[in-house]
Amino acid sequence: MAPGGLIVASRSGSAYHYPWCPGAATISQGNKVWFKSEEAAKRAGYAAAKNCKGLE
User: What separation in angstroms does the CA of 9 have from each of 21, 31, 53?
Assistant: First the structure.
């Protein structure tokens, strides 16, 4: 698991990513929101990134 959790999203975005996905690399450190699971990210209003394999 990454230092902040399993799933990362941008405070100003609408998608969540695995930390190793391309979209996660574009999120600035200060803008990252971490979640322990996909369910937690979904409950917070985020949707799975379409370019991140393995996300539902």
Answer: 11, 8, 15
